[in-house]
Amino acid sequence: MAGRPRGVDDSVILRAAAEVIGKVGPAGLTLAAVADEVGLVPGTLVQRFGSKRGLLVALARRSAHEAEAHHERPRQGRPSPLEALRALAEESMALMDTPERFANHLAFLCMDLIDPELHEYALSVHEAQRRAIVALLEEAVAEGELRAGTDTVALAGSVQALIAGTGLTWALDRQGTLPERLRRALTGLLSPHTPSKEMS
């Protein structure tokens, strides 16, 4: 395996790092664990990323770039802006499909809040998500799924808070699945703004 250090793309390694974080958290992350996940030797990861911190920064940077690209076209072919919003909420929490994985990724977010370099990338992800949510809400107003005059910027802030809060509440009470909880919570938040029952 040491003979093919360039046989695995960095994107594959970074996805594997995210998987390992979900299993053991950032404190338990090692280059050896990530290397084992993708069939490389740890020395290959040292050559590419320099250290565990270098790997975490690369993961944060890639997440920021992917968020920008992913949220540029938030509809992604879906016929309904609000259906696309549901999908965006679910996809943003897709790596956190168990309370344990949620806790481990939350620990990574705590690192983002403390480390200035990581925080910069985390903020970029947050802002890209906000822009995508605003765009979908504006489309929903234009297409009649939300009432005319809806304050889409303020509502987008509530949607982001709902996504984060629903994840934490679900991880605590462990009732149902996270996608189910997100859909129900979005229905409750948006229903006062809908002229009919698009979110039902």
Report on this structure:
The structure is a single chain. By secondary structure, the chain is mainly alpha-helical. It has a domain at 77-193: Tetracycline Repressor, domain 2 (Orthogonal Bundle). The chain has 9 helices and no strands. The protein has helices spanning 10-28, 31-38, 42-49, 52-70, 81-92, 99-114, 116-142, 152-173, 178-190. The longest helix is centred in the middle third of the chain and has 27 residues, at 116-142.
Short description:
This protein is an all-alpha fold and 200 residues long. The protein is 72% helix and 0% strand.
| Overall shape | elongated
CATH structural architecture of the domain at 77-193: Orthogonal Bundle
Q: How many strands, what sense, and barrel or not for the largest sheet?
A: none
Task: List low-pLDDT spans.
Answer: 1-5
CATH topology description of the domain at 77-193: Tetracycline Repressor, domain 2
- Describe the oligomeric state of these chains in a short phrase: single chain
Beta percentage is under 5%
In N-to-C order, the SSE pattern is HHHHHHHHH
Q: Any idea of the CATH class of the domain at 77-193?
A: Mainly Alpha
Summed over residues and divided by their number, the pLDDT gives a mean of: 89
Report the helical percentage: over 70%
Count of DSSP-assigned helices: 9
Output the structural class: mainly alpha
Specify Rg, calculated over alpha carbons. 19 Å
Kindly report how far apart the N and C termini lie.
52 Å
How many β-strand runs? Answer: 0
